Amino acid sequence: FDDLIIEKIGHWPDYAERIKNLNIRVSPEGLKKLERKRNEALRKGLLKTSDNDWVKAILADSAGQEMPAEIRLKGDWTDHLKGDKWSFRIKVKSPHAWQPVNEEDNGLITFSVHTPESRYFLNEWLVHQCWMEEGILTPRYEFTEVTLNGKSLGIYAIEEHFEKHLVENQQRREGPILKFSEEGMWSGIERQLENHGYIHHDYRSTVDDWENTWSEAFGQQRTLSDSVLKKQYSVARQLMFEFKNGLKPATEVFDIDKLARYYAIADVFNAYHGIIWHNQRFYFNPVLGKLEPIGFDAFGGKPPRRYTILGEGALNPNNNESNRLFGYLLQDDEFNNLYFKHLYTYSSRKFLSRFLEKHQIGWDERLRLLQMEFSNYRPVYKDFLQDGLFVHSLLLPYEDLSIRVFTQQRNNGTKNLSLQNRHHLPVEILGSGYSRAQMNKPVDTTVILPAHVSRRYLSRLLRDSLIRDFNSTKFLHAEALALQQTGEQYSLEVNSNARFIHFKLPGVDSIFTARIMDWPAPELTRPQHNAAANDINDPKYETLFLVRGQKIMFYPGQHVFTEPLILPAGYEVSFSEGTEIDLTNGAYLISNSAIQVYGVEDNPVIFTSSDGTGQGMAVLQTKTPSVFRYSIFEDLGTLESGSQHLTGAFTGYESDIRFYNCVFRNNHCEDALNMVRSTFLLQECLFSQISSDAFDSDFCKGEVKNCTFRNTVNDAMDFSGSIVNIFDCLIESPGDKGISCGEESDVSVFDTTIKDSPIAVASKDLSVLLLRNITVSNCRQGFVAFQKKPEFGPGRIIVESFTAENVDKLFNIGEGSFLQLPEE
Q1: Band of the pLDDT at 10, cuts 50, 70, 90?
Q2: Among 107, 618, 645, 770, which is 20 to 30 Å from 367 by CA?
Q3: How far apart are CA 241 and CA 210, in angstroms?
Q4: pLDDT tens digits, 555-613
């Protein structure tokens, strides 16, 4: 080592000194062309680009090195065209390449420059580093100063475009890069902007459905002109088509391990913008014959506060994401195994601490550069660790709580169990044992229980959740009705002496146990028909209704029933204004078809019983929605015939029923309205002089809007196992509770007043009750939460805002139950 030379470096160059400034020169004619395109985009509300948009340019770095190029405007929305800080797509002419940093790295041929703010500054850069380190393809992403014709435009982000250099620079062989066509989506948006000037984000045309898009290649012309790439492109498109249509499993289409890593990292960094279908990119690996994800466009701005993860509801076909790419993946056992394995690793303190420490210097250097322009950008680096640890806390199940195990039947030496997964992620059943410490009998085959579809309201119990940030009820309205389902049960046979079930999260080694309960699972008795449907073509009905095709149309006027009428399935039943149905002599009306009632304010449709013996009406298991407008239900009892015992003057079972401007009064039974396993809407309805509960909802989803409840002997509204939103209601003088929630109900109440009630609201048995702008007056107790049934658990109440007047006891919270009051 005699020739060893040691040189002391006095200063290691900072990032701002190492990067090359990007100086762009465009002719006056070219600049005018860019300005015309920008003005056109501002008029239309979005930027639609074409091959005719390119203009010639010269690129020069800070050292004066020049190279020919072409540029055009870039970005879909006009936020990329604000002021002078426009976004550009740039193509460098061969044989040149742009080198963004003074390091030995392959240059960029085609790339984009945009304001760092559009991808939320350093968040995008950091998640790119993680993807790259974990073997996931991702464009190179850096920052620099950009000038246009000598005028500084400020600090920009530089992002590599989707060409062969992207994959070759990350040790992959050239292959097609695919995306889903966005043509339908942008055509729909453009039409809305042209016709009425704004966008209905809740509306989506069928041409905008992911299922109806097709795959196309970047550099399509070059791909199709190369025989090898063309063949590979054909294979790649076919793979994606077969996956979308359920013809091939994910393992045969994707490099499943890389795909699981990609989504897990997106979860840890809250990088969900990139997983939207029109932002996803895939590389076809010709060696494996499979698709790999390309991490890209992770942030569309500042990410929302997290309170959940992508994998909620995995393997459950009712999952809200089941009609999207990730939802399809969540139905695949092997993908779930890898996804949860990597998510558990990436969200761990060990992994995140090491990763963040490694990139601390790079983060700090780039932050100093960005703050030269964006002085108010002051991120907290350690927040990435805290957010990741929050994700980590969501993963593992709980002892005894995450699954419930009931003994349904005992046989010779064995017993049949019913298992219910209450965890928001799937669980793998490993076997049974006599103790928690030892599993005596493994299961013969792999048993994985699908996740319980997420109950979003439970997340609100966290004080750092979104509950403090809501300015509208849009999320509550959409999520509550779309995401949540009642739990499913699964059977397993074990040794009669087994006392515990052993289980775990797929892909993670930690083992948990659940005690086997000695009683069967609660069940909901299904109403059974004791009589066949009536022959609607019987001449005795000729004066009652007209049958035309699949329609049963009741004639206007008064009709007295002296015997039951059961209408068959497969029809549409209608009542027009001025119709009155009088159920006498114990008569009742059951319809197995949807009912349409067309009453009007001054001429409603009336269902009544003049002799007080009418056994009410029921709509059972209909396939299309029923609608009741301006209908009156009064003086009705309920059906008790043979083994069929209902509780409502009106009963809806496994149906979708909507009530507008209806009146329920003077019933002679347990419930004025009973909905079971149904969806419903009550709007502008009145419940008055009710003999017990006004509205009883069992295992339903629905909404109650602008309704009034007066003088009920028992509860105004009683919910069991239901998910309900209540808006702008008035409850006066209930005999027991204004609103009662039980058996894991999720109920949200907004802008509602409860007066003169023994108990204003009650939450019991694992129910969650969210209250906003609630007024409680002249009540003995305000907020009550407790556990009533041993097979459930405590109740929870979250009060965001309320007013209490003349309330004897504001709250009464049982042991283990929870009440969150607003901070003063």
Answers
A1: very low
A2: 107
A3: 11
A4: 999 999 999 999 999 999 999 999 999 999 999 999 999 999 999 999 999 999 999 89
Strand pairing of 557-561 and 551-554?
unpaired
> How crowded is residue 159: how many other Cβ atoms within 10 Å of its Cβ?
25
pLDDT one-digit tens code per residue, 418-452: 998 988 889 999 999 999 999 999 999 888 998 87
Closest CA to 54 of 21, 29, 84, 23: 29
Average pLDDT of span 45-70: 88
- The answer, yes or no, to whether residue 761 has pLDDT greater than 60, is yes
Closest CA to 282 of 332, 231, 215, 343: 215
User: Could you say which DSSP state residue 79 is in?
Assistant: G
pTM metric for this prediction: 0.65
Query: Dihedrals φ, ψ of 251, to 5°?
Result: -65, -25
Q: How many CB atoms lie within 10 A of CB 435?
A: 11
Q: How far is CA 639 from the centre of its chain?
A: 39
* Contact indicator for 256, 334 with CB cutoff of 8 Å: yes
Other Cβ atoms closer than 10 A to 20: 20
Integer Rg of the chain from CA: 32
Q: How far apart are CA 794 and CA 816, in angstroms?
A: 6
Please tell me the distance from the alpha carbon of residue 704 to that of residue 602, in angstroms, as a whole number: 23
Task: Note whether 669 and 639 are within 8 A (CB).
Answer: no
Which residues of 572-625 form beta strands (DSSP E)? 572-576, 579-583, 589-591, 594-598, 605-608, 617-620
Helix/strand/coil for 310: coil
On whether the CB atoms of residues 529 and 566 are closer than 8 A, the answer is: yes
Q: What is the pLDDT of residue 474?
A: 37
Q: Which residue has the tokens 């009589």?
A: 531
- Taking CA atoms, 481 is separated from 415, 489, 679, 701, 746, in Å, by 37, 21, 9, 6, 10
Does the pLDDT value for residue 473 go beyond 70? Answer: no
Q: Is 8 helix (H, G, I), strand (E, B) or coil?
A: coil
- Please answer whether residues 704 and 724 qualify as being in contact, where contact means their C-beta atoms are separated by less than 8 angstroms: yes
Contacts with 758 (C-beta within 8 Å, 6 or more apart), sequence order: 734, 735, 736, 737, 779, 780, 781
Which of the four pLDDT bands, split at 50, 70 and 90, describes residue 481? very low
d(CA 166, CA 131): 14
Question: Tokens 């939460």 identify what position?
Answer: 785
Supply the DSSP string of 520-578, one letter for each residue: PPP-PPPP--SSPPP-TTSGGGTTTEEEETTEEEEPSEEEEESS-EEEPSS-EEEEETT
- Cis upstream peptide for 506 (omega within 30°): no
| Residue 309: both structure tokens together | 């993860």
Q: Give the burial string for 697-727 (b: 16+ CB within 10 Å, else e).
A: bbbbbbbbbebbbbbbebbbbbbbbbbbbbb
> What angle is formed at CA 439 by the lines to CA 437 and CA 445, rounded to 5 degrees?
150
| Adjacency order of strands within the sheet including 427-433 | 441-449, 427-433, 500-504, 511-517, 403-410, 414-421, 490-495
pLDDT one-digit tens code per residue, 238-257: 998 888 877 889 999 999 99
